[in-house]
């Protein structure tokens, strides 16, 4: 079946993004803010395009992992406050210059940013305090709470906009006791911080699965990236979330292989019977890793699975179309709403976020509303 697709294309459906945003907002009480996580190019799509759309429909906050991602959003015209989850001291000047808001997650980071803020004669510069309640990646320890309060009260250069933490296992209800322990610890930390600094910052701890599974963790704001972009894994939590991304390509060429003929590097596939293979212009440089070779991964052609043959090349894959009625120029679906990315990812023992965020920038991005 020929289609309008003429090259490998990642199609982003903004209508589905709007749907997911609206749905998640309905899961929280009125007045609870929603922070859109747009790190890693909004999980492999386009941070600027998606942030501008989310800004238009009312998102309250954005978050990125690194300062360079926040700078790119500002340069694209995003005005909404942007939290930088994992800032590094070398980027502090850049953060201030672009009105980004750093997460302060250690006594060292707090001290260095405070020193710079004093040197720049800043007043009430917005910062966020990240506390570790059990995921053990980054964040102040509970035992450091008093030192954090003392450091903040020594100067008027900084203003705590939010206090936050991250749930480790909110998607796994078997870990309910652990999640509740995290939530209760965060409540204690937040209470002590508010008492110590003398004012009320925004409190947030819930990620997408926290939004859906733990209303007691909604506090003043919730965060979502994967739920907004709906790459498939979310269906485990809530079927109402829609995948927004479709990765499609075309059949470039079809070959007929006789028994004994080989295909690809290192003769990674050798035909044992008459076989038809289709070559598709996408490879491991585009995010379809070599792990998907040797029939671990597949694409969809005319509603049928076509398994990847041999070794995935840098720019191409070859798939088995022996039993599929197809021709050169036909559309190939790598993933879409009907065949979400998590299904393909699970065949390689990974998750959709790793697959999506690996999508190369050379893949054309197309934005639609349908």
Automatic annotation (TrEMBL):
GO cellular component: cytosol
Residue ranges annotated for the Alanine racemase C-terminal domain, each copy included: 244-368
Keyword Repeat found: no
SMART domains to which the protein is assigned, alphabetical: Ala_racemase_C (SM01005)
EC number(s) per entry: 5.1.1.1
GO biological process, one term: D-alanine biosynthetic process
Catalytic residue positions: 39 (proton acceptor), 265 (proton acceptor)
Location of N6-(pyridoxal phosphate)lysine modifications: 39
Keywords, sorted A to Z: Isomerase, Pyridoxal phosphate
GO MF annotation, one: alanine racemase activity
Superkingdom of the organism of origin: Bacteria
Pathway: Amino-acid biosynthesis; D-alanine biosynthesis; D-alanine from L-alanine: step 1/1
Cofactors (names): pyridoxal 5'-phosphate
Catalysed conversion reaction: L-alanine = D-alanine
SUPFAM superfamilies, alphabetized: Alanine racemase C-terminal domain-like, PLP-binding barrel
Binding residue positions for substrate: 137, 314
Function statement: Catalyzes the interconversion of L-alanine and D-alanine. May also act on other amino acids.
Family the UniProt entry places it in: Belongs to the alanine racemase family.
Name assigned to this protein: Alanine racemase
Species of provenance: Aquimarina intermedia
């Amino acid at each position: 079946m020929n289609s309008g697709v003429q090259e490998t294309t990642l199609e982003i459906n903004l209508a589905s993004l709007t749907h997911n945003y609206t749905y998640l907002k309905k899961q929280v009480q009125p007045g609870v803010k929603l922070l859109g996580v747009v790190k890693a190019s909004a999980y492999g799509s386009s941070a600027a395009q998606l942030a501008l759309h989310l800004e238009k429909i009312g998102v309250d906050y954005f978050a990125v992992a690194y300062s360079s991602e926040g700078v790119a959003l500002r340069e694209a015209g995003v005005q909404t406050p942007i939290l930088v989850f994992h800032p590094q001291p070398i980027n502090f000047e850049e953060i201030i210059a672009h009105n980004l808001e750093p997460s302060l997650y250690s006594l060292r980071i707090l001290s260095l940013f405070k020193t710079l803020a004093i040197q720049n004669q800043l007043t009430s510069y917005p910062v966020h305090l990240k506390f570790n309640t059990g995921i053990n990646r980054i964040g102040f320890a509970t035992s450091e709470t008093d030192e954090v309060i003392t450091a903040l009260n020594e100067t008027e250069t900084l203003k705590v906009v939010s206090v936050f933490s991250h749930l480790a296992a909110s998607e796994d209800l078997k870990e309910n006791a652990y999640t509740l322990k995290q939530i209760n610890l965060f409540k204690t930390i937040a209470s002590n911080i508010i008492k110590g600094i003398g004012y009320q910052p925004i409190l947030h701890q819930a990620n997408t699965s926290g939004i859906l599974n733990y209303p007691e963790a909604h506090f003043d704001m919730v965060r979502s990236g994967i739920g907004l972009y709906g790459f498939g894994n979310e269906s485990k939590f809530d079927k109402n979330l829609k995948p927004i991304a479709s990765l499609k390509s075309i059949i470039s060429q079809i070959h007929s292989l006789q028994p004994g003929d080989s295909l690809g590097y290192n003769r990674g596939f050798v035909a044992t019977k008459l076989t038809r293979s289709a070559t598709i212009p996408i490879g491991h440089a585009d995010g379809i890793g070599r792990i998907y070779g040797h029939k671990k991964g597949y694409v969809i052609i005319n509603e049928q699975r076509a398994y990847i043959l041999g070794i995935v090349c840098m720019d191409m894959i070859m798939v088995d179309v022996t039993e599929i009625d197809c021709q050169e120029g036909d559309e190939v679906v790598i993933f879409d709403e009907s065949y979400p990315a998590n299904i393909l990812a699970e065949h390689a023992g990974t998750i959709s976020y790793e697959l999506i965020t690996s999508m190369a920038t050379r893949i054309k991005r197309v934005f639609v509303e349908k």
